[in-house]
């Protein structure tokens, strides 16, 4: 088995047109610090990252908002065991904290500068390969944010620039300031809204697409269907995993399970293989806390699908039959359809001392789809009384 794993090579693909080359399958590190399950011990997290690298995964994704901040520290420690020049490291900035109205986003030049310095220190590296704006700041013209990011590239602190959950207009305006290498979006069998506008635009501009939650936040791996949801998981807060919606969605899972048998793989592997087959410019970044699931995800690269297969799989999960919204109402404005910014030259007074927050903030609560370690606070927002957590 080990010998067979060694023989299998994960292909390399190019993201964007500026020269970034990554493994066709990346690894999303968020879950190592919580979210779907409890955070893993540091030694376990490091061993998972090392195993991923040994199997050929070289593209690792984190954020200053995961943990908060502790995920970057963990990744930094894991990198000490790996050849830095062979790893493509991605992290993100922009989410300051959560309040009762949703995520507080900052894309001002001062905040960008403070965040990169703090991330470089936590990761203990000299540069970031791919630096994303995690969510779009609707108060700051994207040109202002991009101008500062462009300076970071010129200074060698960042090699490539990315955006996450940005609207088509924001992507175009950002790309005009400095080439965008990748756009990170949610894309899976039951979340396909980027296919009409975002994907064609990225291909027109030569921008890669990095897909998070490619297994439907674990749904096509059986979360909530054949496997009970952990008490500490944020999944029950997502509409699609709630009561009546989940019962309806189980029908879709059973369809994929049946197709997976036909292709000699698991439902999770088929769902991931479907994303992998969307193009050479598409790189999914599933995460896991278990070595066996990591190996299973990597083996999804061995699943070969024809155009006819892809259509059959897509048809098995009609979007109009998916029950429940993607996000709770509180977080809906963070979706790419709302990822717009003021016109260039607009002067908007930012109300929060965010530069201080970038390095010394107390993040009170986290969006259930972004920050894994603040579940207690999230439950408090939804009416469950639990102790307040702080950094």
UniProtKB/TrEMBL annotation:
Pfam families: Aldo_ket_red
Top-rank taxon, per record: Eukaryota
SUPFAM superfamilies, per the entry: NAD(P)-linked oxidoreductase (SSF51430)
Domain NADP-dependent oxidoreductase: 24-315
This protein's UniProt keywords: NADP, Oxidoreductase
UniProt cross-references to InterPro entries, sorted A to Z: AKR (IPR020471), Aldo-Keto_reductase (IPR050791), NAD(P)_OxRdtase_dom_sf (IPR036812), NADP_OxRdtase_dom (IPR023210)
Protein name: NADP-dependent oxidoreductase domain-containing protein
């Amino acid at each position: 088995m080990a010998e067979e794993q060694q023989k299998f090579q994960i292909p390399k693909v190019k993201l964007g047109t500026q020269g970034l080359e990554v493994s066709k399958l990346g690894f999303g590190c968020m879950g190592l610090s919580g979210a779907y399950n409890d955070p893993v011990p540091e030694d376990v997290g490091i061993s998972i990252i090392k195993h991923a690298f040994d199997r050929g995964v070289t593209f690792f994704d984190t954020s200053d908002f995961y943990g908060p901040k502790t995920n970057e520290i963990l990744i930094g420690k894991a990198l000490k065991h790996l050849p830095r020049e062979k790893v493509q490291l991605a992290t993100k900035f922009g989410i300051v904290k959560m309040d009762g109205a949703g995520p507080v986003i900052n894309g001002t030049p001062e905040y960008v500068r403070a965040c990169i310095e703090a991330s470089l220190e936590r990761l203990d590296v000299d540069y970031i390969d791919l630096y994303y704006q995690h969510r779009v700041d609707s108060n700051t013209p994207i040109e202002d944010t991009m101008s500062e990011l462009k300076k970071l590239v010129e200074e060698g602190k960042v090699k490539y620039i990315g955006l996450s959950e940005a609207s088509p207009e924001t992507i175009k305006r950002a790309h005009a300031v400095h080439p965008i290498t990748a756009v990170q979006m949610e894309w899976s069998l039951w979340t396909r809204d980027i296919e009409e506008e975002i994907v064609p635009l990225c291909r027109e501009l030569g921008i890669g697409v990095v897909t998070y939650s490619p297994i439907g936040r674990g749904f096509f791996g059986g979360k909530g269907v054949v496997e009970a949801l952990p008490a500490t998981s944020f999944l029950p807060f997502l509409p699609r995993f709630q009561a009546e919606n989940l019962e309806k969605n189980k029908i879709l899972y059973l369809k994929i399970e049946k197709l997976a048998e036909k292709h000699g793989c698991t439902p999770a592997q088929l769902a991931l293989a479907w994303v992998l087959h969307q193009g050479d410019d598409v790189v999914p970044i599933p995460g896991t806390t278990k070595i066996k699931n990591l190996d299973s995800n990597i083996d999804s690269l061995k699943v070969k699908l024809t155009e006819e297969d892809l259509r059959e799989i897509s048809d098995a999960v009609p979007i109009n039959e998916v029950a429940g919204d993607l996000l709770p109402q509180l977080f809906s404005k963070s979706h790419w359809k709302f990822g717009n910014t003021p016109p260039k030259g607009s002067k908007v007074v930012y109300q929060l001392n965010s530069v201080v927050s970038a390095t010394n903030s107390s993040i009170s609560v986290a969006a259930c789809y972004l920050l894994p370690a603040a579940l207690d606070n999230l439950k408090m927002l939804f009416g469950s009384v639990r102790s307040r957590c702080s950094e």
